Every structure is written in structure tokens, then in C-alpha cells.
């Protein structure tokens, strides 16, 4: 991996996505394509983004019964994403089936607690305790199910890496020092995330909404 920095391309507009990728492609390690992009553009859109020659992180956060998720993963085989997300809350059987259905070139990582949630939000959905406790529980589940790693915030990644030294840890929602938090509630800087054990960083709006996305990507890259 040339750089741990992936840019989040969360737009339904293929043209805008291509334009952003063209601007930042020399200063990021890969492209993260989310639900907005995939629902609008599907396989065709992913194939178009693959033309930039960067690894594709397909962030679909699959979460359903084991059989359905396994078939969905199989349907993505021809795209050969470098990374694919599923929700850890889907349970052990779903995680095991997702990993078994994935291609050998695809890392399957489990989303633990979204970075837009905090302890109060977890309580609202019936999960007691702190976010870090839930992340630890779901990380253990993902590891035991044979997944490659997890998605968690920079606040928990050091804790998880201590118990899973060879895991692959994706940290989204990172924000440059002094940057706007937006809807992120558990964010750290890119440098802090790497120092704590992140394998891959996902940065969206600080790059995509910048006046000069290429400059924004270069400035973040310079801190790593």
C-alpha cells in the first residue's frame, strides 16, 4: 500500500466522483466508494473508478441474514474490491459467511460502532455501556469469525490493536487539526490515528469539500 490515506467519495454523481479522483490520485492510497455512489452507479460506476489504478474500498456495510450477505458478497466478485465492509452486529454466522464468500484479494472488515455515534446514541438503541466496550466486544467477534479486521474510531484503535496485533484497522472520520467535526463524534487527527495503530485512514469532506482537494490531500499526507 503506497499510502494509508483513502479519500471517501460519497456522491451519487459519477462525473463529480471521477473529477475528485483525478485531482487527488497522486496523493492518496485508494478510493473509498460508499452507499451513495454504489446505489446510483452500481458495478458500472465501480469499473469506471477502477480506471484510475487505485485500490477500491467498497464501503457497503452489508448487514442481513447470513445467506443474503454471502450472496451479495459473491455478486461483487467481479469487482475484486481491495476492502469490503460488513456490520459486525450481523453476528458470527453472517461474518463467517461473508468472509468465506469473498474473493482472495478482498479484505473483509467489520464495522463496529459508527463514528457518528457516542455513548448516549448507543443507549438509545439498547446498547448499554461505553462505545469502547461495544467496539471491543465486536472486535473480538470479528477476530473469532476470521475476518481481516474492523472499522472503528481513532479513540478505540489502540485498545483493539493491543488485543489483535495483526488485525487490519480502518479508521474513518479522521479530521485534520482544527478541522470541522461535522457529524463525527469520536474523531482524531490522521497522525493520531496512525500513531495509535490504524492501518488505513478514511478522509471525506476535509478533502472532497476543500477549495483545492489536491492541496488538502497533500497537506494531510504531509502529516503522516
Write a brief caption for the model.
This protein is of the alpha/beta class and 224 residues long.
Give an overview of the whole structure:
The chain is of the alpha/beta class and 224 residues long. Helix content is 42%, strand content 17%. An eight-stranded parallel β-barrel has the order 1-2-3-4-5-6-7-8, surrounded by five helices. Helix 7 links the parallel strand 6 and strand 7. Helix 3 packs parallel to helix 4. The protein is globular, with a radius of gyration of 16 Å. The two termini are 14 Å apart. About 2% of the residues have low confidence.
Strand content: 15-25%
> Which secondary-structure class do the elements indicate?
alpha/beta
Query: What's the order of the H and E elements?
Result: EHEHEHEHEHHEHEHEHH
> Unreliable segments (pLDDT under 50, ≥5 consecutive)?
180-184
Share in helix: 40-55%
Distance from first to last alpha carbon: 14 Å
Give the overall silhouette: globular
Question: How many strands appear in the DSSP assignment?
Answer: 8
Spatial ordering of strands, largest sheet: 1-2-3-4-5-6-7-8
How would you characterize the largest beta sheet? 8 strands, parallel, barrel
User: What Rg, in angstroms, do the CA atoms define?
Assistant: 16 Å
How many DSSP helices? 10
Q: Could you tell me the mean pLDDT?
A: 92
Amino acid at each position: 500500500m503506497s499510502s494509508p490515506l483513502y479519500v471517501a467519495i460519497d456522491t451519487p454523481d459519477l462525473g463529480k466522483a471521477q473529477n475528485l479522483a483525478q485531482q487527488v490520485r497522486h496523493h492518496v492510497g485508494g478510493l473509498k466508494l460508499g452507499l451513495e455512489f454504489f446505489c446510483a452507479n452500481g458495478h458500472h460506476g465501480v469499473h469506471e473508478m477502477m480506471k484510475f489504478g487505485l485500490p477500491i474500498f467498497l464501503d457497503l456495510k452489508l448487514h442481513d441474514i447470513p445467506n443474503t450477505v454471502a450472496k451479495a458478497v459473491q455478486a461483487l466478485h467481479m469487482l475484486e474490491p481491495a476492502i469490503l465492509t460488513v456490520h459486525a452486529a450481523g453476528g458470527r454466522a453472517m461474518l463467517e459467511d461473508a468472509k468465506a464468500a469473498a474473493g482472495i484479494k478482498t479484505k473483509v472488515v467489520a464495522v463496529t460502532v459508527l463514528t457518528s455515534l457516542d455513548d448516549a446514541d448507543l443507549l438509545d438503541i439498547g446498547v448499554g455501556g461505553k462505545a469502547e466496550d461495544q467496539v471491543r466486544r465486536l472486535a473480538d467477534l470479528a477476530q473469532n469469525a476470521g475476518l481481516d479486521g474492523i472499522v472503528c474510531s481513532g479513540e478505540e484503535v489502540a485498545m483493539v490493536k493491543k488485543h489483535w496485533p495483526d488485525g487490519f484497522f480502518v479508521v474513518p472520520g479522521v479530521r485534520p487539526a482544527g478541522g470541522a467535526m461535522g457529524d463525527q463524534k469520536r474523531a482524531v487527527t490522521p497522525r493520531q490515528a496512525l500513531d495509535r495503530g490504524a492501518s488505513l485512514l478514511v478522509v471525506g469532506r476535509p478533502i472532497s469539500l476543500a477549495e483545492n482537494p489536491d492541496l488538502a490531500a497533500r497537506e494531510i499526507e504531509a502529516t503522516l
